[in-house]
Specification:
With about 170 residues, the chain is mainly beta. It folds into 2 domains: about 80 residues, Chitinase A, domain 3; about 50 residues, Thrombin, subunit H. About 10% of the residues lie in helices and about 35% in strands. The protein has 3 helices and 9 strands; from the N terminus they run ββαβαββββββα. The strands form 2 sheets. Strands 1, 2, 3, 4 and 9 form a 5-stranded antiparallel sheet that branches. Strands 5-8-7-6 form a 4-stranded antiparallel sheet, with no helix packed on it. Strand 1 and strand 2 form a beta hairpin. The two termini are about 35 Å apart. About 20% of the residues are buried.
Length: about 170
């Protein structure tokens, strides 16, 4: 690094941060900004998982690092109470009943829940309502590619406006 008089801007609360990232879990890439473009978020507002947000604090544009996030600072530990068995008769014949199949279910009030088939038994299906990455250690390759102060509106609303967070 050179000894320049000007201070480089670094990631801090209320900054709009744009990152490129690749998320690997158990040696497999599960998400990457190369598929949908860089991600913009409002730093310090809980929009990304805590373990990654903490590691981005103080980074400058152009900096890259590898970050390992434990489940407690990611999607949380796996909750054993989130495994629920339902009778096979409640599933329409159009659904493939095998472990790993992801489903969306709704209750009587219309609330939608995501679940993954954990196990198929003779007369029931065990569903896992945990986040698919719960209990997993997350490995990020992350690079800061954009950084600016949030506008007053963005700070007030708690999220990025304009280019933020969505693929173009």
């Amino acid at each position: 690094m050179s000894n320049q008089a000007e201070e480089k801007r670094t990631v801090q609360a209320d900054d709009v941060v744009t990152i490129e990232y690749t998320l690997t879990v158990d040696g497999e890439v599960v998400d990457s900004s190369s598929e949908h473009g860089p991600l913009s978020y409002l730093h310090g507002h809980g929009q990304i998982i805590p373990g990654l947000e903490k590691e981005l604090e103080g980074m400058a544009v152009g900096e890259a690092k590898e970050v390992t996030v434990a489940p407690e600072e990611g999607y949380g530990p796996e909750d054993p109470n989130a495994f629920i068995a339902l009778p096979k008769s409640e599933f329409p014949p159009t659904i493939t009943l095998e472990p790993g199949v992801q489903l969306q279910l709704s209750d009587q009030s219309g609330q939608v829940y995501n679940a993954t088939i954990h196990e198929v038994k003779d007369d029931s299906v065990v569903l896992n309502f945990n986040h698919p990455l719960a209990g997993k250690t997350l490995h990020f390759q992350v690079k800061v590619v954009g950084l600016r102060a949030a506008t007053p509106e963005e700070r007030a609303h708690g999220h990025v406006h304009g280019e933020g967070g969505h693929a173009h």
